[in-house]
Each structure stands twice: as C-alpha cells, then as structure tokens.
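We were asked to recover a plausible sequence for a given structure. The inputs and outputs are reproduced exactly as logged, with field labels preserved.

PROBLEM: sequence recovery
POSITIONS: 322
GIVEN STRUCTURE:
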C-alpha cells in the first residue's frame, strides 16, 4: 500500500494528521508539530535541549485502522490499548486537523468555520468514487454545497484540463473555508442557493454531496436534512448539463426510495461508482425519537449492521447522465 508523503504544508501548532490510503482500506493517525513534544514525549533533541515543536517534515504514526467507516471512530479508538487510546483521543482534541487523501489535503480548524463540516467518510468515499467516473472531457464543473472545499480541490487536482469550477454553498462560512483552502486560479466562489447559482449555464460536471436524511415536514435548514437539492439536480439534469455531461452525487440508503422514484420519473441513467456501509453519526437525528421512527418507517435505516453503533446507512456515490 502506497501512502502519500507526510504533508509539508501543515502549520506549526497543535496538529493531528489523518491520512487515508488511495483505496480507503487504511486510515493512519499521526501526531505532528507541538503534539510530538507535548503528547508523544519527544521533547528533547540529541543534545538534550528542550524542543517545543518539530519541523513540518516530522510526523509520528500513532495508530491505524483497516477498512475505516468513520473519520472519528470512537468505538474503534476505544478498543486500542489504554495509552494509545487516550493518546488518540488527545490528538482528536487538537484544534487543527489535517486530512489527506492522495494529493488532496486540508488543514481544517472547526472553530474558524462555524456550521461547516471538515472532511467526513462520505467526503473521502466521494473522492475515491470520482476516480471511476468518465471525466476526460470535462472543461466546466461546479460543486453544489461545497462545504470545506475538499471535494472541489480533489476535482481540480484530478483534472488539469478543467478550465473553470464554481464552488457554491448556502453558508457564507463554508465559502470562506473554500476560499482559504482552494487557491487554484480556476476556482470561483459564490454564497447562496446552489439551485440559483447553477442556473443559466450548462456544465460538463456537477458534483454534490447533498443533504440526504428525509424527515417529515422537512424544512431543509441543515446540511443533512431533506432531499430537495438532490431532487432538483435529478429533475433538472437535462437543463443543467452539456451533452455528455454528468452529475456525480451521494445517495444514502435513507433516501433510496425517493431517489429511485426520481430516476424513474425523469428517465436518467444512473451508475454506482462506489459504496460503503457506515454508521449514522448525526446526533440531532440519533437523539430525536420521532425522526428515527420516521426513518424506520420509510426504510433504509440499517440497525446493528456492525459493531459499536446502533444505526447505519449505505452510501452510494452515483453518476447520473441524461
């Protein structure tokens, strides 16, 4: 298994590094910078002098997991030997988290971007799935709901012939995060409703990791709730795409019924690029009895599908063409 090299752009300070293998079969957790001295005990150099922080090129692996199903898997961390377990939890408490997949890297600090999620397992599955899509002729692209910008950054690195990419998100903080991390001159940014931002232009590629959790009387005011954006993309694929264009999106088993109805109604072709069963780790859903009951009623909620978590879902990254 070929791991990417140690990130060279991570800042000094309290930092942990999460690296995922290209096929997502392995996750590695490493300490970096200040944490090498303060957590890992590497606080003296060869001459016995105090070290406060290590250079950017230095990182020390602490733990690794095969077949990860979460970026932060508290259950599996809890199975480690006590010292390693507590060390890993201490690293996850660091304010700055570096996430690396292939050559895409983000240094994400949650407190700087309220309401924005750093890369999660569905983000990484999405990037892995893009390798299976037919993207050789793509010149124009957009991401609807760009979040941290990680997926768009991966697209830009994958496609050197891509000429223009729009990153749009309803949350201005997310757009700020995208601007801070995606410095590619081909990228442009917009805060607002992606449905409006995408209109008036035909795209070779639209990527979207959309809200996907159905809810009775959904008002779609958070990054998980409802399927309105997904429905809009499928319903309007013919107007949004160039001939030969495609939409790559994430579909959860929680909304599979609704998605299949849309595919059949609008006559689009749909191909699965990658899939993975993962825990449903959205606390405002898990702690809401009526919402969970609604998901059970509509199917797609997988219960006790693996160790450590009660509720699971099947994620599929799909390619939609007209």
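RECOVERED SEQUENCE:
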């Amino acid at each position: 298994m070929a791991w990417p090299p140690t990130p060279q752009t991570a800042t000094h300070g309290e930092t942990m590094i999460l690296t995922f293998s290209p096929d997502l079969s392995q996750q590695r957790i490493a300490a970096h910078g200040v944490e090498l001295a303060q957590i890992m005990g590497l606080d003296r150099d060869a001459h016995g002098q105090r070290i406060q922080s290590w250079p950017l090129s230095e990182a020390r692996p602490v733990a690794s997991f095969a077949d990860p199903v979460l970026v932060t898997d508290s259950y599996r961390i809890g199975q480690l030997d006590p010292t390693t377990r507590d060390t890993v939890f201490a690293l996850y408490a660091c304010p700055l988290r570096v996430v690396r997949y292939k050559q895409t890297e983000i240094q994400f600090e949650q407190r700087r971007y309220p309401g924005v999620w750093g890369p999660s397992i569905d983000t990484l599955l999405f990037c892995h799935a893009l390798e299976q899509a037919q993207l050789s002729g793509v010149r124009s692209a957009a991401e609807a709901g760009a979040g941290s910008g990680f997926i768009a950054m991966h697209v830009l690195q994958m496609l050197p012939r891509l000429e223009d990419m729009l990153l749009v998100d309803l949350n201005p903080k997310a757009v700020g995060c995208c601007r801070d991390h995606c410095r590619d001159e081909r990228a442009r940014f917009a805060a607002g409703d992606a449905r409006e931002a995408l209109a008036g232009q035909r795209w070779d590629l639209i990527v979207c990791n959309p809200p996907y959790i159905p809810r009775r009387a959904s008002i779609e005011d958070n990054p998980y709730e409802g399927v309105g954006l997904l429905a809009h993309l499928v319903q309007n694929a013919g107007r949004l795409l160039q001939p030969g264009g495609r939409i790559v999106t994430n579909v959860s088993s929680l909304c599979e019924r609704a998605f299949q109805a849309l595919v059949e109604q609008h006559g689009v072709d749909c191909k699965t690029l990658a899939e993975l069963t993962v825990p449903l780790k959205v606390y405002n859903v898990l702690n809401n009895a009526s919402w969970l009951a609604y998901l059970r009623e509509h199917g797609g909620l997988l219960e006790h599908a693996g160790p450590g978590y009660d509720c699971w879902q099947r994620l599929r990254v799909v390619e939609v063409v007209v």
